Amino acid sequence: MVTKSRLSKLTPMNKQQLAAFEAEWRPRINQYLDQQLQACSDRPTLAASMRYSVLAGGKRLRPLLTLAVLDVFGVTITPAHLRASTAVELMHTYSLIHDDLPAMDNDRLRRGEPTNHVKFGEDVAILAGDALQPLTFEWIADSGLPATMIAQQTLALAQATGPKGMVAGQVADVLGAGRHLALPALQQLHREKTGALIHYAVQAGLIQAEVPTAIQDPLLAYADAYGLAFQIYDDIWMSPVPLKNLVRRRTRMRMSI
């Protein structure tokens, strides 16, 4: 159990340590996803569609955040931690598949490759996303973590991705397309659509590290600020509009990489 006195003595990772942590754990996350999705479905087309998007690259930011929290708190990362922490990448991928659909952002490329619905058709893409969402919870449930941790992490993920989290942000994005949004409304959209899952990633690490709820607030505030900054950076990076004009123009927000 982490106490306030122990929390005050924690040493955050510096830039070099963080780079070394990423270099060690991103390949492990990729390898784990590849191995565990080998037989994700008895339907070959569905399995291929699920694997196509999950293994299409990406920073693996969310599972890395969870694992980094464990590392900072001195928790030895076990296979159970890895499974429960990597599950978030399935949920993230489901959101990207659905975000790219013609009824949403209608994107035909993601990370330089055809989007899932372009490759497999809208019907299979929708179903691949539908399959990845419950698989996320399956990985958490059968991870081998203590039952209390599983329950807490499952609740946190459901809240982060449901009607008051990621889905709410997607609704705001769709309904706000082509309209000017005031800064508070735009920030709230980002907190829900992108930030909620980043908040969850840090929260999952805190749950697994058994950090008491009463002393989680500063770290979750960091997660919220990081999520907002990440989305702002992503919008600037992806926008064809010159930086000086970005404050004058509102286009549909893109889901983070």
From TrEMBL:
GO BP terms: terpenoid biosynthetic process
Pfam families recorded: polyprenyl_synt
EC id: 2.5.1.10
Stored InterPro entries: Isoprenoid_synthase_dom_sf (IPR008949), Polyprenyl_synt (IPR000092), Polyprenyl_synt_CS (IPR033749)
SUPFAM superfamilies per UniProt: Terpenoid synthases
Catalytic reaction annotation: isopentenyl diphosphate + (2E)-geranyl diphosphate = (2E,6E)-farnesyl diphosphate + diphosphate
Keywords: Isoprene biosynthesis, Magnesium, Metal-binding, Transferase
Entry cofactors: Mg(2+)
Class of this enzyme: transferase
Molecular function GO labels: (2E,6E)-farnesyl diphosphate synthase activity; metal ion binding
Family in the record: Belongs to the FPP/GGPP synthase family.
Name assigned to this protein: Farnesyl diphosphate synthase
Gene for this chain: ggpS
